[in-house]
Design a protein that fits this description.
alpha+beta; globular; NTF2-like_dom_sf; signal; 32% helix; Nuclear transport factor 2 family protein; 154 residues; Nuclear Transport Factor 2, Chain: A
């Protein structure tokens, strides 16, 4: 009887402290919610998948070919999306979704091409870290690379 109670307690506790791994399909859904909302300036929808302490960076070569890492405040991105999306048409085409997950952290890698007013602007990759909260998976960090002259076009 004691061993049965021990097995039941162990099974119940593992259910209470576990969450689903982030699947490729769910990672794609979360990233797409954020990106689609960004492109139309829907900051409410963007915030629905953002962790309250989310951070952002962008890495690129400047005109002097120096490596630059710039921190971006998520509030600035939200403001930019809300005020600019209706005046300009931009599109970030995600080329793939590579998802890795372990416990309550996950990573989504998405190469992209960026178009402004229908014209190719640059390419790169998004490296997106997600964390599992009490509610759901949330985007905790986004760092993207930006390349202008070294993009392989399909």
């Amino acid at each position: 009887m004691k061993s049965l109670l021990l097995i039941f307690t162990f099974a119940l506790s593992s259910l209470c402290f576990s969450q689903e791994s982030l699947t490729k399909e769910n990672g794609k859904i979360i990233v797409d919610i954020f990106m689609d909302a960004y492109q139309v300036g829907d900051t409410v929808k963007m915030k629905s998948v953002m962790h309250p302490y989310m951070t952002m960076q962008t890495a690129y070569l400047n005109t002097e070919q120096q490596n630059i890492l710039r921190n971006v405040r998520p509030s600035d991105l939200l403001k930019y999306a809300a005020t600019t999306a209706k005046a300009q048409k931009w599109e970030e085409r995600l080329k793939d979704y590579v998802v890795q997950s372990d416990g309550n952290i996950a990573h989504v890698w998405t190469p992209y091409e960026f178009y402004m007013e229908g014209k190719f602007s640059h390419c790169g990759a998004n490296s997106i870290t997600l964390v599992y909260t009490d509610d759901s998976w949330k985007i905790f960090n986004i760092i993207d690379s930006r390349r202008i002259g070294s993009c392989i076009k399909e």
